[in-house]
Each structure stands twice: as C-alpha cells, then as structure tokens.
DNA sequence: TCTATTTTGGTATTTAAGTACCAGAATTAA
DNA sequence: TTAATTCTGGTACTTAAATACCAAAATAGA
C-alpha cells in the first residue's frame, strides 16, 4: 500500500505534536506527554522536537517543569514550515528522472505533476497551527 | 530536497521505458537498449520489466532477437497500472498516522489531502501509453 | 548441435528512514 | 547543595527500499 503524497511519519508526528502544544499554550508541554498522547516512542518524538527547536519553531526548557512552547504565533506556523524542517526543502518538479538527466526531450509527465505539486504546496502552506486552537 | 508526490525512480523508469516500447511497436525492444536510452543500469531496468511482464503488461521473449512488446493496446495501459505494479496498490488516505491508530478524534488534515490524493489518482489514470505514440 | 544473446530469478549489497539507547548538561525545588 | 526532572546530542540498531550481481534457462541462427 503506497501513499500518493509524500508525508513521513516524522512530519506527521511533528504536526500532531505541535497542534497539542498550540492548544495547551501558554503552558509548556513535555516530550513524555506528547509521546503518550500520540502513541509514539519518546526518543523518536524528542528527536523531532529537537529539530523544530533548532529551527526556531518552538522554544525548549530543561529541568523539572521544562518542556516546549511555540516560539511564534500559531497563525505564523504552517504545515509547510514543519514539513520542510522535518523532511527537507520542497522541490516542485515531481519527475524523479529530471534531476538525473532525463533523456526525453519533453517531460513525459507534461505539466500535470507540476501543477499538482503546486496545489499540494499551497495546501501545506494553508494548514496553520492556529486552526487547532478552539 | 523532497518531492511532494511519491514516485520512485523505478516507477518513472517503467513509464519511460514502456513509452519507448510503445513507440517501437510492433518491434521488440530489449533491456540493454532501454537501459542505454534511459541512462539506467541494465540490471535494474531488467528487474522492473520482469515485474511488468509477470503482471501481464508486456510480453517477453528470450534469446537473440528477444526483448519486450506490449501485451495489450497502448490505450489500455495507464501510468496508474504501472505505478501500482512497481510501487504497490495505491491508498487514497494520506495521513501516515491513520493506519497506526491516530489519537485525534478527527483527522488533523481534514479532507484536503484526501481530495488531492484523488486528483493525483485521476491524473495517473489519465496518462495512457498511447499518448507517447505519434 | 554449437554459440551467442537475452530474459529469469535468486541473492547480495547499498542506502535511507525510522527508531532506540544512554550519558551529559541545564534547571527547579527542597 | 542535593536530588529529581527534562532536554540535548551522539551513536547504534532495525527495517525497508533501491540497486546490483551472477549463474541458469530459453531461444535464434549458423
């Protein structure tokens, strides 16, 4: 069973975890709590949140009462931001042969994949953390 | 650099290779020729075409003058067919947490990804090998 | 029948992602 | 100052996908 859209479990955990952090704001939320809530291993989740912290999306605090809080307003954090931190920068041309030097004159996929990529990109950009606060 | 749509190099090679086979029809085309044309390793390409053959998309012939030909009209072979043979059956829900038991009540991605998946699915279905014969 | 050619299929290697472990540094509260 | 808690960061393990290798089987033509 293969997914058509590329979303790793790590990126998904990051989004779901940050949604919890946003909802609990301004309280701090620690990795143990998040891992439990998401049925994920604490080690794995901690690693992911380390990257989010290093990239300025969240602030982290050590020691008892430590944990994570957002580092900017929830409206200003999109799933695209999260995705590009956890996976890597997005590329909007989806033919895998293109980079390795395709031998066809014109891309065999035409424009179809490029425009879908762009719509996925926009969708990712429009999913904001603020959506998960009520 | 990460692609938003999931297309392995193998699936892409299969499509590009089959396009060549379709164009050369009714002549047979062998793996060596295809590998050269596509800048791919012959071993890798042969493996991919083995699967296409086993799944009835192409017919294969051994020995000198051997090679591959389509096993059905080019109009009846879509990129979706190829994709599902090379990758695996497509799943149209793209949240990776869904299968592992998401702990959120409603999918955090809403319907957005599902509808994009469907549009990718349709696009894959509409790309027919006959498009590459002129 | 013999040789060269081509697919076949089993296996092995490589690569990347996901996951887990653990000691160290920082912080809080007693 | 001590003990408990929490993030940090380096490393190691596991798993799956991608890719490569090679001997065996089949075939065509001489």
List keywords for this structure.
elongated, 134 residues, two-stranded antiparallel ribbon, homodimer, DNA-binding, mainly alpha
Report on the structure:
The two termini of chain A are 35 Å apart. The longest helix of chain A is centred in the first third of the chain and has 16 residues, at 9-24. Chain A contains 5 helices and 4 strands. The first copy, chain A, is mainly α. In chain A, 34% of the residues are buried. Chain A is elongated. The first copy, chain A, has a two-stranded antiparallel sheet with strand order 2-3. In chain A, strand 2 (58-61) and strand 3 form a beta hairpin. Chain A has helices at residues 9-24, 31-38, 42-54, 79-86, 112-126, and strands at residues 2-3, 58-61, 67-70, 90-91. Chains A and B meet through strand 1, helix 1, strand 4 and helix 5 of A and strand 1, helix 1, strand 4 and helix 5 of B. Strand 1 (2-3) of chain A pairs parallel with strand 4 (90-91) of chain B. Chain A binds a DNA duplex (30 and 30 nucleotides) through helix 3.
Compute the number of strand runs of chain A: 4
Low-confidence stretches of chain A: none
Mean pLDDT over all positions of chain A: 89
Q: Please compute the radius of gyration of chain A using only Cα atoms.
A: 17 Å
* Main interface by residue count: A-B, 46 and 46 residues
Task: Write the element-wise H/E pattern of chain A from the N-terminal end onward.
Answer: EHHHEEHEH
The biggest sheet of chain A, with number of strands, parallel, antiparallel or mixed sense and barrel status, is:
2 strands, antiparallel
Which strand order spans the largest sheet of chain A, edge to edge or round the barrel?
A: 2-3
Oligomeric category? homodimer
Task: Characterize the overall form of chain A.
Answer: elongated
CA(first)-CA(last) distance of chain A:
35 Å
Count of helix runs of chain A: 5
Binned, the helix content of chain A reads 40-55%
Beta-strand content bin of chain A:
5-15%
Broad structural category of chain A: mainly alpha
């Amino acid at each position: 069973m293969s997914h058509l859209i590329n979303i790793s479990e790590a990126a998904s955990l990051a989004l779901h975890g940050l949604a919890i952090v946003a909802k609990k704001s301004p309280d701090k939320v620690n990795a143990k709590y998040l891992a439990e809530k998401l049925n994920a291993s604490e080690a794995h989740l901690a690693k992911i949140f380390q990257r989010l912290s290093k990239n300025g999306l969240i602030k982290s605090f050590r020691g008892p009462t430590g944990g994570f809080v957002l580092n900017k307003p929830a409206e200003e954090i999109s799933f695209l931001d999260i995705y590009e931190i956890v996976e890597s920068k997005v590329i909007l041309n989806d033919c895998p042969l293109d980079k390795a030097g395709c031998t066809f004159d014109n891309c065999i996929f035409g424009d179809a994949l490029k425009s879908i990529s762009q719509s996925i990109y926009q969708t990712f950009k429009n999913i904001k953390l603020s959506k998960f606060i009520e």
